[in-house]
Structure formats: C-alpha cells, structure tokens
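[job 0412] stage=complex_fold ligand=uridine-5'-diphosphate status=START
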Amino acid sequence: MPVDRVTLAEATETASQWITDGGSPRLGLAVNAGKAESMRRDATLRAVAARADLVFADGVGVVWASRILGDPLPERVPGVELCGALLERASERGWRPYLLGAHQVVLQQLASQLTERGIDLAGMHDGYWSTLSEQDLVAEISSTRPDVLFVALGSPRQEAFLLRWLDALDVPFAMGVGGSFDVLSGQKQRAPKLFRSSGLEWAWRLGREPRRLATRRALDLPLWAGRVTLEKISLYTYF
Ligand code: UDP
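[job 0412] stage=complex_fold status=DONE, emitting structure tokens
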C-alpha cells in the first residue's frame, strides 16, 4: 500500500496548492490499519489507492507499522484534522467547499458554524438519499463548481463513490472524511488529547461505539498487527 511521507502541515499545503491551481481532479485517501486490511480483499479500495494523488496515514497503526518495518512515516495525519485545516483555509482564501454525507441535522449544524466563520459553501447533501440517482447527485454537485469536496459516507462507500465519479465531478480536490462532519459539527466528541497523543484514539472509539466490535473491521486491527509482526520477523530472517 503506497503511503505518502507527509506531515499534516505538508498534506494541507499540497491539497491547498491543488485547490488553488484548480486543475483536473485530485484525490486524497486516508488510510488506517482497517483500510489496509480491507485492501487485501477489496479490489475497489486497491484501485482507489492506485488512483489517489495523496495517501496519508490517518491511523496510528499505519505509522506504527512504518516504524516497526524501519521506513518511518513522519507522523499521523488524521483525516478530520486535514479536513478541518482545509476548511480553515477555505475561510481565508474564499474557497467554496461542498459537503456530501452524514445526517441532515449534522450537516445543518456544521453548515451554520461554517457560515458564521465566513465560509461560502458551494452546497451540501446528506448521505442518506434514496430517490436520487448517483448520476443526478453528481450533476448537482458539479453544477455548484466547488473548490473542494468532502465525502462523509463511511468506508469503503465514500472511496468507491469517489473512484466512480471523480472525473465527472470537476472539482480540484476531493477526499473521503468518514465521521469527520459528526466531529467537526460537535455532534460527536473526538477522543481526549491523552488518547490521541498515546496512539489510543481507536480504543476510545471502540469504547464509545462498541457496535464496531461486532463488525468485521474490529478484526482488522489485530490481523494487521500480526501481519506487520510477521513481516518484521521474516525481514530479520532473510536479511
Ligand atoms: N453515513 C452516511 N450515509 C450512510 C452511512 C454513513 O452519510 O449510508 C455517514 C455517517 O452519518 C457518518 C459517516 O458516514 O457521518 C461515517 O462515519 P464513520 O465514523 O462510520 O466513518 P468510518 O469509520 O467509516 O471512517
């Protein structure tokens, strides 16, 4: 899995440059241990990783693996922080973001906060549409000519959506942001600083949302840790 060796500041700068240039669509992809594991069985996710222009280590498991395997990434680049940093710049530089995904109530709360901060939203649409076709939704998004598109539909749905429609979307930069709108709107709390700095944000999330334990994704973390450890052992054996 390719991962760009970037800090949060560098990722923000790179995406900002693409947005400012306004060229053909660029794609950002957040990766964590869960997504890395999913990539082994999900060809669409692998195609997204191959198509992505910026792949950043959203999860601590990816940074940990890079260190264990002797090719360290500089730091974790949480997608929610990259999204927040780009929204900050949107207010400074007059970019018009489009928000796709999450519940309508979350979107409305976030939109009113962003408007108060002087951000001119290109548009927004919740992530629970049923009557609209994806094609019509894409046409609606494109017609607003956004500078940046954040897609919060959960993984891998958001990545599959972006892979399918990126070229039709006509937006300089797009990325999937998972549950970021819930956090940025204040509807959901992010892990306290102590959990974040000690690399245990995932444990805090599991504690808050135990239903995640019942999903296949809960297995991905230990699987990933095991695979990385095996990789390290075999490296020692052969070199
Ligand atoms: N979501 C959505 N439509 C759906 C399923 C999910 O808009 O059909 C939203 C959900 O409301 C939440 C985000 O997608 O805001 C997914 O958040 P989650 O924390 O599950 O993200 P992940 O762990 O997949 O990155």
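The mean pLDDT is 94.
[job 0412] exit 0
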